[in-house]
From TrEMBL:
<protein>
    <recommendedName>
        <fullName>Small ribosomal subunit protein uS8</fullName>
    </recommendedName>
</protein>
<dbReference type="InterPro" id="IPR000630">
    <property type="entry name" value="Ribosomal_uS8"/>
</dbReference>
<keyword id="KW-0689">Ribosomal protein</keyword>
<comment type="function">
    <text>One of the primary rRNA binding proteins, it binds directly to 16S rRNA central domain where it helps coordinate assembly of the platform of the 30S subunit.</text>
</comment>
<comment type="subunit">
    <text>Part of the 30S ribosomal subunit. Contacts proteins S5 and S12.</text>
</comment>
<dbReference type="InterPro" id="IPR035987">
    <property type="entry name" value="Ribosomal_uS8_sf"/>
</dbReference>
<dbReference type="Pfam" id="PF00410">
    <property type="entry name" value="Ribosomal_S8"/>
</dbReference>
<keyword id="KW-0687">Ribonucleoprotein</keyword>
<keyword id="KW-0694">RNA-binding</keyword>
<dbReference type="GO" id="GO:0005840">
    <property type="term" value="C:ribosome"/>
</dbReference>
<keyword id="KW-0699">rRNA-binding</keyword>
<comment type="similarity">
    <text>Belongs to the universal ribosomal protein uS8 family.</text>
</comment>
Amino acid sequence: MTMTDPVADMLTRLRNANSAYHDTVSMPYSKLKARVADILKAEGYIAGWKEEEAEVGKKLTIDLKFGPERQRSIAGIRRISKPGLRVYAKSTNLPHVLGGLGIAILSTSSGLLTDRQASKKGVGGEVLAYVW
């Protein structure tokens, strides 16, 4: 069966693994999911990710990051733009998550960017998710 929203599936798997204190989480691989994982790694929300061969196709394995006393590094993660309701942001009106403490992941003409990177480049786009 085909999946209607693979990004929402990825974020849900991350949210569930994070709340269950799992060290890793696996999901089917796609370039979009790998770019989201790149952004999460660069912003310090995950420890790392790797692409592995599976029985059919590839899988993406994400290593979750916890503090010294098992505090979660991801407090929350939320899908914003959905297949039934796309949400776009202009370059002049980019979202700020928790007053700048979190990040918004945007799909722009320059690729996937955080809200800060998009404001520096002066581009807008589709708001994929909020992470804090």
